[in-house]
Every structure is written in structure tokens, then in C-alpha cells.
Design a protein that fits this description.
The structure is a single chain. This protein is α/β, with parallel strands linked by helices and 306 residues long. The chain has three domains: 85 residues, Arc Repressor Mutant, subunit A; 99 residues, Periplasmic binding protein-like II (D-Maltodextrin-Binding Protein, domain 2, 3-Layer(aba) Sandwich); 100 residues, D-Maltodextrin-Binding Protein, domain 2. The protein is built from ten helices and twelve strands. Strands 3, 4, 5, 6, 7, 10, 11 and 12 form an eight-stranded mixed sheet that branches. Helix 1 crosses helix 2, helix 2 packs across helix 3 and helix 5 packs across helix 10. It is elongated and about 80 Å long. The chain starts with 7 loop residues before the first helix and ends in a 13-residue tail after the last helix. The relative contact order is 0.14.
Amino acid sequence: MGANSLTLESLEIIDAIVRRGSFAAAAKELGKVPSALSYTIGKLEERLEITLFSRHGRKSVLTPAGKMLLTEGRKLLSARSHLEQEVRRVATGWETRIRIALEAIQDCTPLLRAIKQFTDEHPAIEVHLNEEVMGGTWESLSQDRVDLIVGATHPIPQSQGIRTEPYKRNQAVIAVAASHPLGQFWGKVSRGELSKHRQVIIHDSSIIEVPRSSEMYSENRRFYVGNMAQKIQAQRLGIGFGTLPYEAIKPYLASGEMKILEVEGANNAFDSLIAWKVANQGKGLKRLRELLLSPEASDPQASFSY
């Protein structure tokens, strides 16, 4: 076996053949002739003393050894791509990618408005957006899975090099389907009455840290969902009640499908934050924060009333 049997170029060729389905299509993507790809694969098989592809008619299919090589090889190709991005970021100060986590209770529209302007200004920068819940939002930042979190709530984790800025005052409401038994109530609903019904709750998305809990009204009648879209639809269909962002359910309130419950002692308003690591000095992140906190990012027509 030669010392340089396996190269990143050969891994790229195998990856392209599998993705494109043939040597000819892979050669076109890579700007080579099919015979050059066949030669490279043949030499690699010879040096590794294995067979990577088996012929099935006109189609080349990976052998088990070939599948294993491709699976592990793609990790190397991904690592190379990440290294290249980091080198460019350090050299220019502009990131090649920005990862954002949005707290599930937040309306995504202001953030998407800021992202729209940012990507118009910087089309080469990739933006990745995920939804997180409660403690999982902070954890995604502390574990470096994202570069920016939007709409996080107190308390702020201590001693993790995190910088925060006030984001917005949020309005959340306890809502239920109009057809639900609670939808028949007029005036304030007691906590005791709520405890008789099922509460719809989003799982805290924490992986490492101890999950946080939202306010529980039902002790043993709960339905857990994975994201805000599922929660809204579950409550809209009458599975139970729960806290929802007012902006997200305005259409259902206007149509009469859902109803806001006035609950004794419930606090509908809360402050939220954006946060990032102090060590992250990227120009792209700085510009995105500026756009997100600008007056233009918020909807001047948005209001809260019931």
C-alpha cells in the first residue's frame, strides 16, 4: 500500500460518482473526462487492495468497503471545508457562515426581516436558522452550536463569556380552541379550573444542561410537542391549552377558531434578549445584530390587544 494511497481528490471523486449516479455525470461536475476518474479509482483500488465499485449493468455501485470509505471520507471533506471557511474568516474578518437559534416563543418575522436585508448585502455568507426552547436556547450558544441566539429569556448563564442586548418586549397569551370546554368560559379562568384540562407544552431542547420548565398549570395532564408549529396546531385542534405568542395566532383569533383565556395571576408580558459569545468578533455577526436591533426590523403595525 502506497504512503499516499488515499487523497482528498480521490474522496471527492467517489463522492461525486455516488451523488451523480455515474462516472460520466461525476466527470462533468468535476470538469474532468470519465477516463481520468476511472484511472484514479482503479489506482486507488490497486493501492488499497480492495474493490470500491461493482458493476450492475451500466451502473456502478459501492461495495461495503466502498460505502465505509465514503462515509468516513465525507467527514474529512467536511472538515476540510470547515477549515477553509475558518481560514477565510480569520483573514478577512467576515464569516462564511452565521448560525442562529431563535427561541420558540418568538415571532420569527422581525428576525427574517433582518436576515433578508443581511443576505441582500452579503450574498456569499450562509445563514443557518434553528428553533430552540428555553434552556436549549442558551445551551446552543454555550456549546458553540450557534453564533447568535435571538429571543432568549432570563436567567442568563453565568461565567461563559456571553454578551447580551435587550431584544424586545414580548406578548404571550394563554389560548385554546374555541371548541374546547375552556373556550366556553367568559371572564377570568382560575388556575384550579385550568388544572382540570390538558396543557400543551414544548419540550425544552436542552441536551446537556438540566431542562428548564415553563409555568405548569396541569399537574398530570400534559401533551408534549417538539416545536412551536406543533404546539399551535395541537391547541388549535382542541388537544389542550397553553401559552402561545400572540402574533403567531392572530389569524386564528380573527377567524374565531381560537380564543384567549384571561387567567388569574398570569403575566402575558416578558422581556427577551439577543446574545452571543464575547470572543466572536466577526463583522457579519456585528452587522446582523445591528440590523436585528434597528427599528426597521420590527413591524410598526404590530399591536397587542384582546
